[in-house]
Design goal:
Family: Belongs to the ETS family.
Strand order of the largest sheet: 1-2-4-3
Helix content: 25-40%
Distance between the termini: 55 Å
Pfam family, one: Ets
Structural class: mainly alpha
Radius of gyration: 25 Å
GO cellular component, one term: nucleus
Region (Disordered): 210-269
Mean pLDDT: 61
Strand content: under 5%
Domain PNT: 68-164
Length: 383
DNA sequence: CTTCTATTTCCTGCTT
DNA sequence: TAAGCAGGAAATAGAA
């Protein structure tokens, strides 16, 4: 069962990075804690990092002693950020990434004021070099060192962002971009399926007909033609027309997922769930508010502007040309039981994330600010 | 291999 | 009448 609420039960990692109100624990105690194996066996031991020995033991001050607090937190999932795209990072992911980057660069825990990076991935992505430098500044750290670290962190961040962009460009509309007003015309399914995106380098979308042949052993019993077959009595939009009712009596598709629709030639992690997919659409200016938009962001209420387009995107991501809004909405309704989604009875095409729904936090729902700024620019250009 | 979750497909009945 | 909604039933893929 997916428990979307779980992340909120864990403490904010950055809270742990602030120095404790009581006197800081002695370093020796921390070593003893590690020796007892209370946390280091789970989270690793920073002190096992050989680079640490090259640094002197600084005084514990009010900066931060993040590693000490980090390793004592049992709920910490230090690798989560690796399996998300940057814009999906929460505050913990950002700091975890920074910790990792610091370790890779051979820095000590005193070189970076981690508490200044208690920000989500969207905010991090939007930061300029100078913004990072500003947050990197600390009275106990030499300014030139801060500048050097800030530069390295900035480069590291953009190296990752570029890699995400490169990999996301694998998916493109072959038949033309239905959202042509967006630039570039990339169907960024990776951002909608972020758990899979890191594995795309060895993955190409299946050609259904190729799959049919390659999997012939499995298909010997498949008397129901797939969507790619010319005998299929269903249109790509799942509609049934005219005398197709007669064909349906002969070629009635059985319920359930079509055989061979899975991907068998490679191993991928679980794809995003329907609620996560919706959340990702809503947080992406390429799809929100053009095909789906927030009705009331504070309540998690959203509206399908083009339900069929959303369903097609879902189908595209799942390599299922037969996906329809009717079927997609059925998948949505299964999430009522767990309060991941909640129905909004009065309005059509309006749904709501429940209290166990995914994190949909954004400071700019429907990208209104961006639009306003664009309008301002246009007004300045064409008064 | 079994069990479980998350769909996918089809369907009936109801509401707008 | 069409579109959307609610939810049962059966089936599958993939993960545990």
């Amino acid at each position: 069962m997916i428990d979307y609420a779980r992340p909120y039960e864990t403490p904010n990692m950055c809270d742990l990075y602030y120095p404790p109100a009581s006197p800081a624990p002695a370093r020796l105690d921390d070593f003893q804690v590690f020796k007892k194996g209370t946390a280091s066996h789970i989270y690793g031991n920073y002190y096992s990092n050989p680079t640490y020995d090259t640094y002197g033991e600084p005084e514990l001050d009010n900066t931060v002693n993040i590693y000490h607090n980090l390793v004592s937190c049992r709920e910490y999932h230090r690798d989560d950020w690796k399996y998300k795209i940057v814009i999906d990072w929460n505050e913990n992911d950002t700091v975890s990434w920074l910790v990792d980057a610091a370790q890779c660069m051979g820095l000590s825990e005193y070189d970076i004021p981690f508490q200044n990076f208690n920000i989500n991935g969207i905010e991090l992505r939007n930061m300029k070099r100078e913004d990072i430098l500003q947050r990197m500044a600390h009275p106990n750290i030499d300014p030139s060192t801060s500048r050097r670290i800030a530069d390295s962190i900035f480069e590291k961040l953009h190296s990752r962002l570029n890699e995400e962009l490169r990999q996301s460009s694998i998916f493109r509309y072959a038949e033309g971009d239905p959202y042509a007003h967006h630039e570039p015309t990339v169907l960024d399914l990776d951002s909608l399926d972020h758990k899979n995106r890191l594995y795309h380098s060895d993955y190409t979308p299946n050609d259904a007909t190729l799959l049919h042949h390659a999997d012939s052993s499995d298909d010997t019993e498949d008397v129901f033609p797939s969507a790619s077959s010319p005998d299929c009595s269903y249109g790509s939009d799942g509609s049934k027309s005219g005398d197709e009712d007669d064909k349906r009596k002969i070629f009635k598709r059985p319920p359930g997922r079509p055989k061979g629709s899975g991907r068998k030639t490679f191993k991928r992690p679980r794809s995003v769930s329907v609620p996560e997919f919706l959340r990702n659409l809503l947080l992406d200016s390429q799809y929100c508010p053009s095909i789906i938009k927030w009705e009331d962001h504070t309540q998690g209420k959203f509206r399908f502007v083009k339900p069929d387009e959303v369903a097609k995107l879902w189908g595209k991501m799942k390599q299922n040309d037969n996906m329809t809004f009717e079927k997609f909405s059925r998948a949505m309704r299964y999430h009522y039981r767990q309060s991941v989604l909640v129905s909004v009875p009065t309005a059509r095409l309006v749904y709501q994330f429940g209290h166990k729904g995914p994190d949909f936090k954004t400071d700019n729902p429907n990208f209104i600010k961006v639009k306003t700024e664009l309008m301002d620019i246009k007004e300045m250009a064409y008064p």
